[in-house]
Amino acid sequence: MTLVVGATGTLGFEICRRLHAAEKPVRALVRNTSDPAKKDALTKLGMELIEGDLKDRASLERACRGARAVISTSTAILAHNEADTFESVDRRGQMDLIDAARAAQVGHFVFVSVSGSISREGGNPLIDAKRAVEKHLQQSGLTYTILRPTFFMEIWLSPHLGFDPQNARARIYGSGQSKITYISLHDVAESAVQALSNPSARNAIVELGGPEALTQLEAVGMFEETTGRKFQLEFISEEQLEAGRTAAINAVERTFADLNLAAARGEVIDMAEVLKRFPVRLKSVHEYASEATSG
């Protein structure tokens, strides 16, 4: 039995779907406030649902009982509020989950973190929390896999962050000339599933990127080619991004400002060695552009 924490999120749901396709029993942790439609979709997949919350240690202990593995993708980055914060969810909650897994003698813990070179300067509340959890997991005595994906193409090349193919508009962070190895969340999900049975994933930190290094402007060009439309570009300079980070008044603003600045500066991960150990067919930005603009 694999416990998936964050199962109602896009990445967590995809992990559940792939485990189900591989005929692996799955237990999905859901909150009583989770979207009923998402819980229904998990039930239809054949998931065992168990109610719990990263802020409720007792519920985590119940969820971990009988589990052979835990995969955690949960984060408060989108649901950030007075109760669900980077401190309560991404740091303390994940640490409590690790402790509950250890007490339940779980065999393997897979933690989806974030790339090692994002926010190199520190001071990012979300990433600081993730690094603290990574350290806690490494010291827990559990067999672990830490996945560190770079920028998700489904997020950074989508209207959520100003990249709007339907209206031929794109927000460019910095000059748009720094290269990024965008990765698909589907490939991260596949890596998480493979980690459970891949000996090279045991007690390992795995940096994950996509199949090619592209500038933001090159990514725009692929969407222009796919749609046959010229995009209107909005540039936000590094100076503006630095000012936004300085002016941030809370953890969420600081985190997003820092991530935007990281996107402006780029991040390239060489996947050659990783792909020898994780045989994942990585989705390209061109493929994603075709899917995102079809219909």
Your description of this structure?
This protein is of the alpha/beta class and 295 residues long. It contains twelve helices and twelve strands. A seven-stranded parallel sheet has the order 3-2-1-4-5-6-10, with helices on both faces. Helix 5 links the parallel strand 5 (108-112) and strand 6. Helix 1 packs across helix 7 (185-195), helix 4 (86-103) runs parallel beside helix 5 (125-138) and helix 9 packs antiparallel against helix 10. It is globular, with a radius of gyration of 19 Å.
Question: Could you give a quick summary of the protein structure above?
Answer:
This protein has 295 residues and is α/β, with parallel strands linked by helices.
Topology:
Blueprint: E1 2-5, H1 10-21, E2 26-30, H2 36-44, E3 48-51, H3 57-64, E4 69-72, H4 86-103, E5 108-112, H5 125-138, E6 144-149, H6 153-156, E7 163-164, E8 169-173, E9 179-180, H7 185-195, E10 204-208, E11 214-215, H8 216-227, E12 232-236, H9 238-247, H10 251-265, H11 272-277, H12 285-293
Parallel strand pairs: 1-2, 1-4, 2-3, 4-5, 5-6, 6-10, 8-12
Antiparallel strand pairs: 7-8, 9-11
Helix pairs in contact: 1-7, 3-4, 4-5, 8-12, 9-10
Biggest beta-sheet profile: 7 strands, parallel
Major β-sheet strand ordering: 3-2-1-4-5-6-10
How many H/I helices? 12
- Which structural class matches the secondary elements? alpha/beta
Defining key terms:
295 residues; three-stranded mixed sheet; 12 helices; 17% strand
